[in-house]
């Protein structure tokens, strides 16, 4: 973990709750992610990590509570929500790349369609984003010509192309073979060192220990513990977290 200045909250959850078909996925979650901060969400499958990420940009609408972005409640729809989503880069478990487009074309779509940039400006932005994730030499490669780790890095570059205030990453290494995980985590680590705010759901505890400013442990939709990595991973306060860590 590096020392980073975190002057103010970019993203805030206040009492956020969410149910699906009568099953409560989140119970009154309170959490803030500050500028330049990397917060890692850990917990068992079904603990609410992905739901919390989706509530951030209203891909899932909270039943109760408030989500604030840059100090204001996140809009519930329309053009205002679209503007907010452009400032929140979302990277899913699946790469969601267009198979018939090159890496450059996949990344350039976002600044052209969402931000209305010219073709030349979008291309320049896409090249810079791909170079930032170490793929400056694979601009013309289609997804089927890239490894899984490279495809995930293209997905991260696509999110970066809109210069977001925060990146939301949902288990970005879960679909990768073990030998490809390192390259993606290396990119995320370098972005954290550059001061990009991130909220990341991950099962990679070694990475969370090294790169995160804070770790949040979720269980059954509740925020059970939160704190610095060494505190959460080495001195857990609750039996539930101790049990979770022993099983890994």
Approximate helicity band: 25-40%
Strand content: 25-35%
- Overall mean pLDDT score? 93
- Which strands sit side by side, in order, in the main sheet? 6-7-8-3-9-10
Ranges with pLDDT <50 over ≥5 residues?
none
- Distance between the terminal alpha carbons, to the nearest Å? 21 Å
Tell me, briefly, the overall form: globular
Q: Count of DSSP helices?
A: 9
Q: How large, in whole angstroms, is the Cα Rg?
A: 18 Å
Q: What structural class is derived from the secondary structure elements? A: alpha/beta
Strand count, sense and closure of the main sheet? Answer: 6 strands, mixed
How many β-strands, per DSSP? 10
Describe the overall structure:
With about 250 residues, the chain is α/β, with parallel strands linked by helices. About 35% of the residues lie in helices and about 25% in strands. It is built from nine helices and ten strands. It has a six-stranded mixed β-sheet with strand order 6-7-8-3-9-10, with helices on both faces. The chain has a four-stranded antiparallel β-sheet with strand order 2-1-4-5, covered by helices on one side. A hairpin with a 2-residue loop joins strand 9 and strand 10. Helix 3 (about 105-115) crosses helix 4 (about 120-130). The mean pLDDT is about 95.
Q: Which key features would you list for this structure?
A:
248 residues, 6-stranded mixed β-sheet, 4-stranded antiparallel β-sheet, 10 strands
């Amino acid at each position: 973990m590096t020392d980073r200045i975190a002057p103010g909250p970019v993203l805030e959850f206040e009492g956020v709750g969410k149910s699906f078909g009568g099953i409560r996925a989140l119970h009154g979650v309170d959490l803030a992610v500050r500028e330049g901060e990397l917060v890692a969400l850990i917990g068992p499958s079904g603990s609410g990590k992905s739901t919390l990420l989706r509530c951030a940009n209203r891909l899932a609408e909270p039943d109760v509570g408030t989500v604030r972005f840059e100090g204001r409640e996140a809009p519930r729809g329309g053009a205002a929500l679209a503007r907010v989503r452009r400032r929140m880069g979302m990277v899913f478990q699946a790469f969601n790349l267009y198979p018939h487009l090159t890496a450059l074309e996949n990344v350039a779509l976002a600044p052209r369609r969402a931000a209305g940039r010219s073709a030349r400006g979008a291309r320049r932005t896409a090249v810079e984003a791909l170079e930032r994730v170490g793929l400056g030499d694979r601009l013309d490669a289609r997804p089927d010509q890239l490894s899984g780790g490279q495809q995930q890095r293209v997905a991260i570059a696509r999110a970066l192309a809109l210069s977001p205030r925060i990146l939301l990453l949902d288990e970005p290494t879960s679909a990768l073979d073990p030998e490809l995980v390192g390259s993606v985590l290396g990119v995320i680590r370098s972005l954290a060192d550059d001061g990009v705010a991130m909220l990341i759901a991950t099962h990679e505890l070694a990475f969370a220990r090294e790169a995160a400013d804070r770790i949040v442990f979720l269980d059954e939709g509740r925020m059970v513990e939160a704190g610095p990595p060494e505190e959460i991973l080495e001195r857990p306060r609750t039996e539930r977290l101790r049990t979770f860590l022993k099983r890994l």
